[in-house]
Amino acid sequence: MHLQPSCFTSFTQAIDAYALPQRFTFPFYYEPHPLCVIAAAELQQHLESQQDWQHNFGLTGELTGAIGKMFGVLLVQNPQGEVGYLSAFSGKLAEQNHWPRFVPPVFDMLAKDNFFHAENLQINKLNQQLAALETHPDIPRLNEELVTKQTQAETQLAAHRQLMIAGRKSRKTQRSQLANQLTSVPSDEKQHENAAIEAKLSQESINEKNQLRDIKHYWDQQINAVSQALSQLTDKRDVLRQERKQLSAALQQKLFEQYRFLNILGTEKSLNGIFKGTVELTPPAGSGECAAPKLLHYAFKHGLKPLAIAEFWWGAPPKSEIRQHKQFYPACLRKCQPILGHMLEGLVVDDNPLLMNPAEGKTLSILYQDDAMAIVNKPAEFLSVPGKEIEDSVYARMRQAFPHATGPLIVHRLDMSTSGLMVIALTKDAHKQLQKQFIQRTVTKRYVALLDGIPTVMADKKATGQISLPLRGDLDDRPRQLVCHEFGKAAETHWELSQIDEMARTARVYLYPKTGRTHQLRVHCAHSEGLNTPIVGDDLYGTRANRLHLHADLLMLQHPVTRERMHFQVDPDF
To answer: The whole model's pTM is what?
Structure first.
């Protein structure tokens, strides 16, 4: 009798009506297969009903210490032809790696019999010694004493140097007076008297220099004594820090070598081997702990054929990120792309839709044109400027339309998914003048957006408001953006309620960005500290639809040549 792998889960409902996928999911941009949606729903039901472990996902209103988590399901077929699925969670769950139903980690750092515990214990002992040294009460006391003595030394030396300057000036005056008194050949008595005065002046100079030497010597002794006492503590600390750094680096490399990933060809690679040829060189923290690599590795190890994959978020979002409960998400790029690049070798995978030209077959309408500038209505899913893989863009189309112009020159951009008005400069002078207006923020830009829900603030009939949330790029998952109060760039948006549709549960709003950060309006709408409601069709921060319902509908600026104030407006197609 054939035994199923312990993590293989059979569907609880009949699935005969669903066609199996012909190609495996492209994990970085996908629409989940219907069977993955069913598998995810069954897993979510299990998460809601399980009693094996306690983990605060933030779903009961208690957000203190809440940790939402990414889960994944992998549709698989066993050698007997039965279709089922595997389940996984990213990282640890309730501080453990192993739970019934879920695939194990590729390498279990928490296992009692592996090297990690012993070597990590050694590092922890160093941490304890360092903590004792870094909190030693003598270090701040000696540092303060050192600064005090250095200040006192500088003060006394400076005062003595001023005294020496005054002394030199006085001696110079006295010598000048002696010289003026010599009207004839001096007598022996006078010569003797002058020589005595000169000797006295010279001795004063010598005495002052000796005093300076003695002051320096005194304070050098004082400062050296404190410095040596301080060094006895800090040198030991620095040695321990270096020892910890070396041990941590060695343990990290050893761990990276233990994370070894299979593909369907039976080829195995470690994290070190996978990241060796990448820009990162060293695997980022947490590499190999995401759901997708764990699922695929288990499938290949147990002879299961992967058919499709989907990952969803469960719980409250992290403070800086935008994650919607139960929403499907692609695999992250920084950590997972190199790993999955190896693991998907030998599988027939869906084409990468991000390499396809989204502007193909679309028309770029020119709404206004003269010798200095043009106003265009950019369609949704249309690049403003050429990308790494796709040349077709507003810039490329305008170059074709105006081959003899010194321009066209891009003055500002719209996100690829955003439609609406753009101004294009047709001369260098016009470009310079228009850019100046954008820099000085004298251009009026208005966007209209349809929100996928009615924000609480609008349900309370508030009609206008301000959002100020600093943004930076998500280094692990570009092009997504994060709210980051520590390192983010300032981003401000004014919003006005236009219309609420109670039946459709949507809200139409006008958005006025004061700054122009990447994805600013999308993040400010979706983030919990903003409107907490994503824009309809936002495939990064909400739920995908036929398009992103965000449109730059109003543009007011000064003509770069005539200085006439110009007003352009075009309605969205949603």
So the answer is: 0.81
